[in-house]
Amino acid sequence: MCPAERNDEGATAARLARLLTAFRPGDDALGVSELARRTGLPKSSTHRLIGHLAGQGLLERDGTAVRLGLRLFEIGQLAVRQRGLVDAARPYLADLREATHNTVHLAILEGTEVVYLDVLRGPDAPLLPSRTGGRFPAHATAVGKAILAFSPDDLVEQVIAAGLGRISPRTITAPGLLRRQLAKARADGVAYEREESVPGVVCVAGPVLDANGIAVAGISLSGWTNRMGTARIGPAVRTTSLALSRTLRA
Questions:
Q1: Residue among 55, 17, 56 at smallest CA distance from 35
Q2: Which pLDDT tens digit goes with each residue over 159-175?
């Protein structure tokens, strides 16, 4: 294959990915014009690429519009490691939510962001922007800090080098302060986030560790600042993350 062909294939793959990722939470069917606007692609190219994706079941037609196809869901189910992690974690997450009435998260680190694999919302908890399949900057979350605290140093440096963007007025944006918080999380086995992602919300998280002590995921508990005592909740979160770690290693 010549370089020109490789470049053309790469460009096509990038355009297909832009189309699929143009759909946002709450979207149902989108028209060609809207997809072209969101992706920045010409309408003619958008129409042609939609045809290819619909032919493979990745998009489904709804009149003149299209929605994400069931084939994408089937492909997602092939993420065996993550699915197995969710299945193993669900009883622990449910017990933690039942005991606290707050919102529990299971997340992994991907690049500089955490990806939420499961979210169990508590009846007494605040409405949070987190959702299953959603992403959030790792440095602004307790679960991200818990994972980073038990990750290789080069991974932490990658997150810092990418920039510690401000998500709320109290987001940690100073590399030195983040490193100190990660060191404390390693010593304590839990990480904290105090209104750094959402004003009025605090969060406690613990790492899910493999046999080498490296974080493969994290569990967090979120609640209102004036209702959830982090010092009281911390041991429960740590116990849950340790129990799940032992289950996965077994």
A1: 17
A2: 999 999 999 999 999 99
